């Protein structure tokens, strides 16, 4: 089966900074919702409903909702690859996904039981991943290869800003969770409107598409997952999955780590999460701005990713050996800097190992399983470790080991230096 030819739609010159700025804003509001809602608002709501079983309930909600994210991201990518409309390929899914996500936030604002929180957040993850899959494909669609490191840095900085702002806004709304949900959902819709109104999504006729014959379900599934048969793509997938797994094993329980491991009073823990997030985010932004363009200039990607992954793992020794608020702040600086460097260059590697540029959104969606999949299993793994060990020390050890393996997984990649 012949693949679509590469769209002739790369943005160069004066149009590229505007495109990157819009992508920055739209990615920032997306991650603000992911971390603000999933990290604080949902956990606060769960803890208020059933404080005795908060760890297991958070693990359940986070894990099941991540299944929806894992499934809907590549599905959304495939759908946007195949969309042929007068509004473009990506725009309908970016705007439609954002509006549907706002509807799920409205649902979340009205629920008061654990099962309904589970349903609402799972639907929200599904709709947000339709938005994310189409949005992510814009980089391989329209950014020249020699500027992918810069684009990756912009998105990494935007992600950091989104996380920082999201946790701060969420901390402000912990006393009014319902209103907080609506604020985050509305912000995503505004980000989507910015994308579709200020950038040009190529229409049919502006790129060449090969005819796609009808195939059986088995063949469709095989083609859908065919990217993982490409060696370099597979190793990038594994490396990202392990780094993200180690990250989310800790992040998803940050609120409870401050309460039960560091020993902060319940009323102080949300602000501690927000403060540490700011510190980590600022450090990540600095290294992302430096490392993304530098990787373009040196044409070296793997070195940045490997070193950043190793430092990420090493930073976790601090709270493991010295469980205080001070150590968490130092950890936040080191871990944030390393994770910022990793994120800035990893996205560039991802776009350079895609097996089929004509199926960019599909393959980016498959690779985004390496983001969503770990979020699916991280809460169950972390919850089991905390429950079995009776504390969070073992959780830090597990996260360190997993991150170390993630750091070296990219080394076998041969098509990228």
TrEMBL record:
Top-rank taxon: Bacteria
Topology with respect to the bilayer: Multi-pass membrane protein
One GO term describing the cellular component: plasma membrane
Alphabetical list of Pfam families matching this protein: MFS_1
Domain (Major facilitator superfamily (MFS) profile) ranges: 20-417
Compartments it resides in: Cell membrane
Membrane-spanning ranges: 20-42, 54-72, 93-111, 117-139, 151-173, 179-196, 233-258, 270-291, 303-322, 328-354, 366-388, 394-414
GO molecular function list: transmembrane transporter activity
Record's keyword terms, sorted: Membrane, Transmembrane, Transmembrane helix
Annotated protein name in UniProt: MFS transporter
Organism, scientific name: Planobispora rosea
């Amino acid at each position: 089966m012949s693949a679509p030819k590469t769209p002739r739609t790369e943005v160069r010159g004066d149009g590229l900074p505007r495109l990157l700025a819009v992508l920055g804003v739209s990615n920032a509001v997306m991650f603000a919702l992911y971390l603000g809602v999933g990290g604080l608002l949902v956990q606060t709501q769960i803890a208020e409903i059933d404080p005795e079983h908060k760890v297991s309930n958070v693990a359940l909600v986070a894990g099941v909702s991540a299944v929806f994210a894992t499934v809907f991201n590549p599905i959304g990518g495939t759908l946007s690859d195949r969309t042929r409309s007068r509004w473009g390929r990506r725009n309908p899914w970016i705007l439609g996904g954002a509006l549907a996500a706002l509807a799920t936030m409205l649902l979340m604002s009205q629920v008061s039981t654990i099962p309904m929180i589970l349903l609402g957040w799972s639907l929200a993850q599904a709709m947000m991943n339709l938005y994310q899959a189409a949005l992510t494909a814009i980089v391989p669609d329209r950014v020249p290869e020699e500027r992918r490191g810069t684009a990756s840095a912009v998105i990494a900085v935007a992600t950091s800003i989104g996380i920082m702002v999201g946790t701060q806004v969420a901390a402000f709304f912990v006393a009014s969770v319902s209103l907080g949900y609506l604020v985050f959902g509305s912000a995503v819709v505004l980000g989507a409107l910015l994308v579709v109104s200020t950038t040009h999504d190529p229409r049919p006729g502006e790129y060449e598409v090969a005819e796609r014959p009808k195939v059986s379900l088995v063949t469709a599934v095989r083609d859908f997952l065919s990217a993982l048969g490409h060696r370099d793509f597979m190793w990038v997938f594994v490396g990202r999955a392990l780094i993200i797994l180690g990250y989310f094993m800790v992040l998803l329980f940050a609120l409870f780590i401050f309460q039960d491991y560091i020993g902060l009073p319940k009323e102080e823990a949300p602000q501690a999460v927000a403060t540490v997030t700011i510190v980590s985010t600022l450090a990540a932004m600095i290294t992302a701005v430096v490392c993304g363009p530098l990787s373009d200039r040196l044409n070296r990607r793997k070195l940045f990713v490997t070193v950043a992954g190793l430092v990420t793992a090493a930073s976790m020794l601090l709270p493991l050996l010295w469980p205080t608020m001070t150590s968490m702040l130092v950890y936040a600086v080191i871990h944030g800097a390393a994770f910022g460097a990793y994120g800035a260059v990893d996205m560039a590697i991802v776009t350079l190992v895609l097996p089929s540029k004509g199926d960019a959104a599909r393959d980016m969606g498959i690779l985004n399983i390496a983001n969503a999949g770990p979020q699916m299993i991280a809460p169950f793994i972390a919850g089991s470790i905390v429950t079995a060990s009776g504390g969070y020390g073992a959780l830090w050890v597990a996260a360190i080991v997993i991150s170390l393996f993630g750091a070296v997984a990219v080394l076998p990649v041969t098509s990228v230096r």
